[in-house]
Write a structure and sequence with these properties.
heterodimer, A: mainly alpha, Four Helix Bundle (Hemerythrin (Met), subunit A), about 80% helix, B: mainly alpha, about 75% helix, flat
Amino acid sequence: MVDTAVHHAEYGHHTSTGLSNNKLGMWLFLGSECLLFGGLISTYMIYRGRVGEGPRPGNVFDIPFTSVSSFVLLMSSLTMVLAVAAAQKRDDRGTTLWLTVTGLLGATFVGGQVYEFTAMYNEGLGFTTSLFGSAFYTLTGFHGVHVTVGVIMLLSLVGIIKRSRVPGDKAEVVELVGLYWHFVDIVWIIIFTLVYLIPT
Amino acid sequence: MTTTAGHTEHMEHEAHGEHAEHGMTTIGYIKVALVLAALTALEVATYFVDFGPFFMPLLLILMCVKFFIVVSYFMHLKFDSKIFSFMFYTGLFLAIGVYATFLATFKFFTA
């Protein structure tokens, strides 16, 4: 019985639903994030044609470059799910390897976004140039911040795993970070289509 | 005793990694990623190739398919408890409803 109690405490199954409260909380958080990004995407859709004196979306978007960035982020979802699978098999080496690869792919995406923002600024699209510029930088900037937070979480988790200081169920912690990571990926799937591929 | 027996069974499953993979193998994940990559390539192709009247519907369908593939297979919602699905989809569909109304108010769909 003592062993069972320890197991429950460790795996977080001692709940009225029989499910992990941490995981339930993460899904609730992700559901609420849909409302946040929904607001930002809707605002962009309203203002994307309000370019004023500034450049139009078609003049500043570099679709081939953004396509590569999107592909990098998409593939980071694969490496993330491989990290989760390795964690569930209690393979620490595999977990840290795939988490590190995911973090590097995420950092590559963020680097690409910084390059893209710089190029757009040099082409005359500042944050206050037009409503389109404000809405675009706010939406993609918020997403970029989410990716950056994800990269920090991934690399921190690698350090924590290497020091064997993961609190509770290691596989669940990796899965929770994974859920967050996949969420930023699905948000980008929507942004890539609605913002970049569908013209004004 | 039942709890202890269940616990023992759970530990045995853990040892064999049975419930850990949520019904997906590494090869399965790679196949899903390849499908996503192919769909992304098709999306990007719409920028270079003229799809005529199918352009917009195709992009929106591809976006939705990619979204649900990631949510179902990479985020394991297809294999996990329905409560998690409820939590997420409630937020998602609430957002879609609220912002579709918002966009309609600004005559986005008729402009």
